[in-house]
Amino acid sequence: MPATAWLALLAVLCFSLPAAAQTEIKTFEGVKLSPYHRDYDNSICGPQKVESASYRLKVDGLVEKPLSLSYQQVLALPSIREVVKMPCVEGWTETLLYQGVRLRELLALAGPKAQATWVMFHSAEGYSTGLPLKRLLGDKVMLGYKINGLPLDAARGWPFQLVAPGKLGYKWAKWLVRLELTAEPQKGYWEKRGYSNTADAAGR
Ligand SMILES: Nc1nc2c(c(=O)[nH]1)N[C@H]1C(S)=C(S)[C@@H](COP(=O)(O)O)O[C@H]1N2
Ligand SMILES: [Mo]
Predict the structure, then answer these.
(1) How many Å apart are CA 196 and CA 168, to the nearest integer?
(2) In the chain, is it the N or the C terminus that has fewer CB atoms within a 10 Å radius of its CB?
């Protein structure tokens, strides 16, 4: 093959490989995944457009070292991939392949103080929810940034969504901007309106 042909082949590969990496993963290790794109939306204010240049994820409250991280700084941390089920109180469940940073790794960077027992998750539009710090140290709990191989978008919760296997969907806060460590449990948006602050997805 002449050198020009090799060059052409190389060019085609260079341009098509990144595009291929953006294709949605539909089945993972034999598990059929729910679709990334849906035409319904049940969030309190609809999809949010979070500004990317100025974005910072804050981790503060009862920590030794408050954090303020850019999207890229979070993505530079080691990541994991897990197929997980997210059940909404409305009755539907999605099975999705999430990629993200283990929450315990992020929390370790901030260093929870001894009095910290709870983490409140604050979202761009004012939504909030919380879980016990202990419950967030599990292997599959993550700050998710990809679903089925695709980055979260405005509908899915760009930049980050809490992935909390075993908990109902309203604990899976999207458009995250701040993690706040507190000494006592707090109620979030739905919890203040009567929903369980435990939100166990038992049997779902
Ligand atoms: N910021 C924010 N996060 C949110 C909500 C919301 O209204 N605002 N809704 C919650 C509820 S009730 C569910 S069921 C899931 C839906 O998430 P999904 O887009 O991953 O299906 O998001 C949760 N996270
Ligand atoms: Mo939900």
Answers:
(1) 10
(2) N
- 88 touches ligand 1 (CB under 6 Å): yes
Contacts of 124 (CB under 8 A, 6+ apart): 48, 50, 175, 176, 177
Tokens describing residue 8: 């052409």
The answer to whether residue 5 scores a pLDDT higher than 70 is no
Ligand 1 probe mutation, 33, 36, 38, 42, most atoms within 8 A of CB? 42
- For a pocket test of ligand 1, which of 34, 36, 40, 43 has the largest count of ligand atoms closer than 8 A to its C-beta? 43
Closest Cα to atom 23, ligand 1: which residue? 170
Torsional class of 178: left (φ above 0), alpha (ψ -120 to 50), beta (otherwise): beta
Among the atoms of ligand 1, which is closest to the Cα of residue 90? 14
CA 198/CA 28 separation, integer angstroms:
30
Non-local (6+) Cβ contacts of 56 within 8 A are 68, 69, 70, 177
Q: Is the pLDDT at 17 greater than 80, yes or no?
A: no
Per-residue pLDDT tens for 110-141? 999 999 999 999 999 999 999 999 999 999 99
44 CB under 6 A from ligand 1?
Answer: yes
- For the Cβ of 173 lying below 6 angstroms from any atom of ligand 1, the answer is yes
Confidence of residue 63 (pLDDT cuts 50, 70, 90): very high
